[in-house]
Amino acid sequence: MAQVGIAHSASLHDTGAIRDAVRRAIDLVCDLRDIVRPGQTVVLKPNVFAPRPAPTTTDPRVVVAVGELCREAGARQVVIAEGRSISTARYRKGASTTRGCFEATGMAQAVSEAGFEIVYLEEDEFREVDIPGGQVLCKASVPKTILEADVFINMPVMKIHSLTLVTLAIKNLHGIVSDYDKLYKHCYRELALARKLSDILRIRRVDLNVMDALLGQEADHATDGRPVEMGLVLASRDAVAMDAIAGLVMGIDPAEVDTTRLAAEAGLGEADPERIEVLGESVEAVKRPFERPDVELSEAKFPGLRLHAGDYCLSCAYYIRRGLDRLRQEGLLDEGHPLAIVVGKDPDVPDDLSCPVAILGDCALESSSAKPLRDRLLLRGKLNTVYACPPMEFRIRAADMLD
């Protein structure tokens, strides 16, 4: 049976207590000396997708604790390797690199003081690899640091995700491919993103997964998420099993999570809770249902919104909803400041619209029903568009687009 260990930390603030919890969680599922042999290079892959501290990103204290245990087991070199998200790379001003994200979160200082090496993956040498059995991603460019690691340890956070419902061990591996591969099929039509993430599991075997669940994050995975005090560390050699059990702790059935279900169906791990041995703390003892993401687009929720929607998928819903949230927070969307949004395939669009208009996403921009409006606005110099699938830019730069 697959195994998942759950350990409780006596304190969220005491570094020693956190280190003890990390050790207990790992000891529950393996002897680390069976994984890390003397003289080997160990690569730890945390979640530092954006310049925001824990729990949006992995707590540096958990990363340092795992690194120290690996060194204690005989590792010659401990490397902390990560690649920021494509949204961060393109749209987050001031910290658009992994280097900037590590500085902003305190990760750079913590792991440097511990004597570990850092590799910012977008600066690494990439190698193209085949992915046998891949459904969406059949080839990928992967940093050599990941491919050449003797031991590879995956270190996610316990978080809700507005596209994949959760972002745990499987989703955390999105950071090990090139920016091109991150952007490729980053949409939810026909479950493309979830299928791609399960394909990434095939690139190389994860030797150990250690999850930072000291603080979880509910409602959203980014700026609108809220911390949840859990005080936990989870460990497993099976990323799929870890996601299944972590999901249950969050009040989410594994069958609801596309990444967990698809990876299990592909034979990449175990998702059936009855076939997973939970060691240490029980799920029932630590369970705390997380609030799920709200990505509804509706005029009722946003006075001033004029929504003209065709068939759109979850990825458009998420990026547009977060952009609308931002506009409302900044006082730029209400009945006195209306905004028409055209989204989805074959939207029903009026002949003319008097308020500002944003046509968002490839489906809308390529639809014949939106073409007359698009052409009129283009001729008037009043066309606001995001040609992309999904329209990531609107989430972060909605106000700039209106200006």
**CATH topology call of the largest domain:** Rossmann fold
Structural class: alpha/beta
- If classified by CATH, what would the architecture of the largest domain be? 3-Layer(aba) Sandwich
Shape: elongated
**CATH homologous superfamily classification of the largest domain:** LarA, N-terminal domain
Q: Provide the β-strand percentage band.
A: 15-25%
- Tally the structural domains: 2
In whole angstroms, how far apart are the ends? 57 Å
Q: What's the overall average pLDDT, rounded?
A: 95
For the sheet with most strands, the description reads: 10 strands, mixed
Helical proportion, percent range: 25-40%
Compile the SSE list and pairings:
Blueprint: E1 2-8, H1 15-29, H2 32-35, E2 41-46, H3 60-72, E3 77-82, H4 86-91, H5 98-105, H6 107-113, E4 117-120, E5 126-130, E6 139-143, H7 144-148, E7 151-155, E8 157-161, E9 165-167, H8 169-172, H9 179-183, H10 192-200, E10 208-218, E11 226-236, H11 239-249, H12 258-265, E12 276-280, H13 283-286, E13 305-309, H14 314-329, E14 339-343, E15 357-360, H15 362-365, H16 371-380, E16 384-386, H17 392-402
Parallel strand pairs: 1-12, 2-3, 2-7, 3-4, 7-10, 8-10, 13-14, 14-15, 15-16
Antiparallel strand pairs: 1-11, 5-6, 8-9, 10-11
Helix pairs in contact: 1-3, 10-12, 11-12, 14-17
